[in-house]
Design brief:
- The chain is α+β, with helices and mostly antiparallel strands and about 280 residues long.
- Strand 4 and strand 5 form a beta hairpin.
- Helix content is about 35%, strand content about 30%.
- The protein folds into 2 domains: about 150 residues, no CATH class; about 100 residues, Tetratricopeptide repeat domain (Serine Threonine Protein Phosphatase 5, Tetratricopeptide repeat, Alpha Horseshoe).
- Helix 5 runs antiparallel to helix 6.
- It has a 9-stranded antiparallel β-sheet with strand order 1-2-3-6-7-8-9-4-5, with no helix packed on it.
């Protein structure tokens, strides 16, 4: 009897091992990581597909809270404080939910990401931001629910949501300027290197700040590099001079950048410098 029992246990164990079949998930998990300015944003969500179903107004009824995906909560993590819909959202991890309607969605960032699906008991005190976002019709069908980071700038990105035939976007603003200015001030109050002067000058150019200050810094960077100033730094010097209204200085810097780019065989910078020299009326 004991021997028979052992045989039965062995058969059962073998069957259990052989029965462990792995199949694809119907709503596969996806993870996106995006740097916006100096802020790291991570998005984790599952991606259901249409599979012949009507999604909005059907599978996802209008006016009802949706988990914004499938399976566990859709989660977004910010490495710094951000601003969403005028609300300051602290660094951390949040669940995202949405209530779809025909012409707009209410998108909610929720301070508890531990739910499976929507919370059994909704707590308004856990809502850190709520945005009403316009629905934009898509010219093609999007079979699988997709989330994106669109319209990237140094200070913001749009969290895009696409499925069926609609696109919805929510703008997320990040404190890049505050962080960069603190970094610049710290560097300039210490012992700045040539690369510090260069980075500060280019940031001022890109962000439309004091162009004369940018000119001072780029000149310092180039002078510290001497004859070894690379073509990409000389290119930025020409752009800063042009922005400041010093066309003569811009042409001189562009010619140096062009010569250096030709020597290095960089066709992109050769073309950019030639285009600028033509635009500025260089002889």
């Amino acid at each position: 009897m004991k021997k028979l029992l052992l045989i039965l246990l062995a058969i059962t164990a073998a069957f259990s091992v052989n029965a462990q079949i792995t199949t694809p998930q119907p709503s596969p998990f996806s993870k996106l990581e995006q740097k916006v300015g100096l802020t790291d944003i991570t998005l984790e969500y599952s991606r259901p597909s249409m599979r012949g179903r009507v999604i909005f107004g059907g599978l996802e009824p209008y006016g009802e809270l949706w988990r914004l995906g499938a399976n566990a909560n859709t989660k977004i993590t910010f490495s710094t404080d951000v601003t969403i819909g005028g609300n300051e959202v602290k660094a951390g991890t949040y669940a995202i939910f949405a209530t779809p309607n025909e012409t707009s969605w209410n998108v909610v960032f929720y301070n508890d990401a531990s739910n499976w699906g929507t919370p059994q008991k909704w707590d308004d005190s856990k809502v850190v931001a709520m945005v009403t976002a316009e629905v934009y019709p898509m010219p093609v069908k999007i079979e699988t629910f997709t989330m994106t980071f669109d319209d990237l700038t140094n200070s913001s990105a749009v969290l895009g949501m696409l499925w069926e035939s609609v696109y919805v976007g929510v703008k997320i603003e990040v404190p890049t300027d505050e962080m960069v200015m603190a970094s610049i001030n710290e560097a300039m109050n210490g012992t700045p290197a040539a690369n510090d002067y260069f980075a500060a000058a280019v940031y001022y150019l890109q962000e439309g700040k004091d162009i004369n200050q940018a000119k001072t810094w780029i000149d310092k960077a180039i002078s510290m590099a001497g004859d070894k100033a690379p073509f990409w730094q000389l290119r930025q010097q020409s752009l800063i001079y042009a922005k400041s209204g010093d066309k003569k200085g811009a042409i001189a810097a562009a010619k140096k950048s062009l010569a250096a780019a030709e020597a290095e065989g960089n066709a992109d910078y050769v073309k950019m410098n030639k285009d600028s020299l033509k635009e500025w009326g260089a002889k």
